Amino acid sequence: MKKAFISIAAGLAVIAAFVIFKNIFSCYLPAKNRGIQTVIRQGDLELLFLGSSTFRCNIDMPLVDEAYDGRDYDIAYAGNQPVATVPEYEELRAGGNSYGLMVFDLNPMLLSQAVKISDARVIWDLTFPSKLRLWKGMKDSEETDLSTFYEFFVTSGMDDLITYPITEPFYLTRYYKGAKTEETPASSREYLENESFDISKEKVNESQRAAVAALVRRCREDGQRFVFIETPHYYRLADDPKYRQLKSVFVKTLEDEGVDEYILAEDIEMDNRNSEFFEDMTHFSAAGRREYTRLLLEYLKDQSPSSSID
Amino acid sequence: MSFTSIWFPFFCALSIAAYFLVPVRYQWKTLLIISLVFYSLANPVYLPFLLISIITTHYFMLKGTGKGLAATLIINLGLLVYFRYNLIPGFNSLIVPLGISFYTFMTLGYALDVYNGVIKPERNIFKYALFISYFPQITQGPIGTWEAMGRQLIEPHYFDAERLKRGGYRILIGYFKKLVIAGRLMFYVDTVFSSPGSYGALTLCTAVFFYAIELYADFSGYMDIAAGLSEILGIRLSENFLRPYFSRTIPEYWRRWHITLNEWFRDHLFVPLMATEFNRSFSDGLKKVLPKAKTAALRTMLPLFVVWLTTGIWHGAAWTYLGWGLYYAVIMMASTGSAGIMKRVRKKLKWNAKNRFIIIFQTLRTFFIVCLGYIFFRAESIQDAALIFKRIFTGASLSPGAVKQSLIPFGNGHQAIASALILTALILGLFIYELLEERQDDRLSRHRLFLAAAMIAATGLLGIFGQSNFLYQAF
After folding, report:
1. Strand pairing of A72-75 and A175-176?
2. Nearest-angstrom CA–CA distance, B339 and B405
């Protein structure tokens, strides 16, 4: 019986070791081309994108490099969760660097997301105190339960940690400054025209809306220049009445906080009916990514520096 | 209460403590109370239907008469059909009592055994009630028989540390299979099968392969937990799985997969059907069409067809299950019918059944046939099944695009590689474990403590908690 207890204790000790390592040290594991700690190590930056997969897939960082002399980066692991963007922002600020302009995601669909762990990388990236702040933000919403707690502190990101020696070199070949470098092909028009989606039952999640407002207030308090941008969606989604309704709520949330300048998809003259630009309803193909980044950089250049908020 | 509920370990600990702390003469009564409480915790509304089945079956089978059997069959099959199949328009049931397919078959098995004189009717209704409601097996089986279970449930048991270790280890294996392997595969399988039209052949093949592993890990994982828990209490449950994916033929596969259900059908449907006059005349008719066929093989054709169609329908009222049943009916009939020819062919080819490559070939071939059957079993409609078959057999491609697409259902794009690697390692681990068990390799028992520690760690770190019930709970 004694041996059985030793066996159980050994199993639990392994769990404890991995959990402690993941929560406290994983963010310091070298990740040359992505992640908050990597950004902090870069020093002061002129332009920083802070969002989720739309920024990862829709921003072409080599093009941004040309416009900003390489003083730029993309953090794209918030997993469609404004609730997660707030502690990410705080962690970046706590790093002591200055960021000329922070670009946040104005994807209307973010507002309807349930508070959950949709991208484990954000947990991996944060230091333990920031993790606790993120957990508090999630806990304050009604969707979290014991299994979410377990996922947050134990299982999330564990795959990446265990396979780190294999996956990290692989990721190095796929990302540059946090964004995709892959030559993503466009989907066929037929696919984009027929891909089914139903967002009619989506509704605003107050926790996410409040997080957007909180992010604006934090930037104001810190004197941080920022802008929210909506990357174009394929017209079938962009023209959906529910999408438009969520977008108007997002815009109103910003305006209620006194933010009256944001970049909507229609401000950038990109053809969102051109299937060559899209991989799916939300994410661009490589051609779309380059086209959009080019147009966005031109727009930012025209607006810079005074108009970009505050 | 589900075995994956966070409260289940506490419930088990309390139940085991109560069972061994009460005087032995109260043990089985305690177990009956625990079982009914367990069942009620799932949903108290289910309990009356279970009690109706228990009370009526016990009453009608006391004398073991034909009328009693008829009443038992009508009541139990009536409840099963009403709740599971929604056959009467306007009288569709909103609930399905947990485990109704399993306990109904136990009930019917008991009634048929009493009627056929295989067993004597149990006079004490509470003892019979414990047999039907015994909590480790009520929701998903195994479909135990009174002959195997009755005495065990009632006789006294004393706490045994060795049994605790053996049972605890088996429970660990069960949770590892369910929470780590089945839990992780579920995401991929559900994503692909919910819209198979969006995926190419490689992704569909991967999903079918994953479903084969998921279903096995899920169902046999449940059985491991149930058997382990029961072993701690001193009660041996019938085994339901014997490493079925190492089978070399389909008939062998069905002797190793969901064993108690197949034995039930063999004993209570196949064998009685074989003996009917109708079957005799039917096979005589077949003999005229196929004069060279062996009479013994022809005798099995109709019973095989009926048994496999019924097995399909037992899983649910859907065309997909019917298609799956029909698929196996055809395979089993062809397998039985061609046994003589194949024997001659093998002799001519000097086929060495012990050759390692032949064993591997036969095992892979059997697994492939089983996987094709799963397309019917898992598809959400018969149209989806047809689409999957068409894509797999006409659109196979190993292009970089197809490989990339097959990673999409793993989830978040930039973490898919890590998930795929972990899953590959886990499936390989399970395969090696089962292979060593199949070979009765003593390394498994020698390194049991290490394996236990590894399974605790893997379940704790890689398990998917709070996500789902067991797949067979739906049947």
Report:
1. unpaired
2. 42
Per-residue pLDDT reduced to its tens digit, A38-84: 999 989 999 999 998 899 999 999 999 999 999 999 999 888 889 99
Taking residues A133-154, report their average pLDDT: 84
Can you spell out the DSSP letters for B283-310? HHHHHHHSTTS-HHHHHHHHHHHHHHHH
E strand or H helix at A167: helix A164-174
Distance (Å, whole) CA B128 – CA B275: 30
How much is the mean pLDDT over chain B? 91
Query: Which of B292, B173, B163 minimizes the C-alpha distance to B233?
Result: B163
Min CA distance, A21 vs chain B (Å)? 12
Which residue of B456, B459, B462, B468 is the best one to mutate when testing the A interface, meaning the one whose CB has the most A CBs within 10 A?
A: B456
Strand-pair partners of A263: A229
Question: Whose structure tokens read 């046999």?
Answer: B220
Query: Could you tell me the CA-to-CA distances from A91 to A40, A97, A137, B290 in Å, in that order?
Result: 9, 11, 14, 80
**What string of DSSP letters covers B170-234?**
HHHHHHIIIIIIIHHHHHHHHHHHHSGGGS-HHHHHHHHHHHHHHHHHHHHHHHHHHHHHHHHHT
Chain A residue numbers with beta carbons less than 8 Å from the beta carbon of B467 are 147
Question: B414 vs A195: CB contact, 8 Å cut-off?
Answer: no
- The residue ranges of every structural domain in chain A are 31-118+178-303
DSSP, collapsed to helix, strand or coil, labels residue B273 as: helix
What's the pLDDT tens digit per position in B112-153?
999 999 999 999 999 999 999 999 999 898 999 999 999 999
Chain A residues in contact with B175 (beta carbon < 8 A): none
Contact call for residues B190 and B182 (beta carbons, < 8 A): no
Query: Which regions of chain A does DSSP assign to beta strands (E)?
Result: 45-50, 72-75, 99-105, 175-176, 179-180, 226-229
> Testing the interface with B: which of A21, A151, A159 to mutate, by most B Cβ within 10 A?
A159
Q: Chain-centre distance of CA B453, in angstroms?
A: 28
Which of B274, B273, B270 has the alpha carbon at shortest distance from B251?
Answer: B270
**In percent, how much of chain A has pLDDT > 70?**
97
Write out the two tokens for B108: 């019917």
Query: Which residues are registered as beta bridge partners of A175?
Result: A180
B52 vs chain A: nearest CA distance in angstroms?
Answer: 37
Using H for helix, E for strand and C for coil, what is the string for B21-76?
HCCHHHHHHHHHHHHHHHHHHHCHHHHHHHHHHHHHHHHHCCCCCHHHHHHHHHHH
- Strand A72-75 and strand A45-50: the pairing is parallel
- Whole-prediction pTM value? 0.89
Residues of B in contact with A119 (CB under 8 A): 412, 415
Neighbours of B367 (CB within 10 A): 17
User: Which token pair is B223?
Assistant: 């059985």
Question: Which DSSP state fits B331?
Answer: H
For residue B449, which residues of chain A lie inside 8 Å, CB to CB?
A: 3-4, 6-7
Assigned fold of A31-118+178-303: Rossmann fold (3.40.50)
Closest CA to A211 of A122, A133, A309: A133
Helix then strand then coil, in percent of chain B rounded to 5, is: 75, 0, 25
Q: Residue A177 contacts by C-beta under 8 Å, 6 or more apart in sequence? A: A33, A34, A61, A64, A65, A72, A73, A74
A-proximal residues of B, 162-221, CB under 8 Å: 165, 168, 195, 198
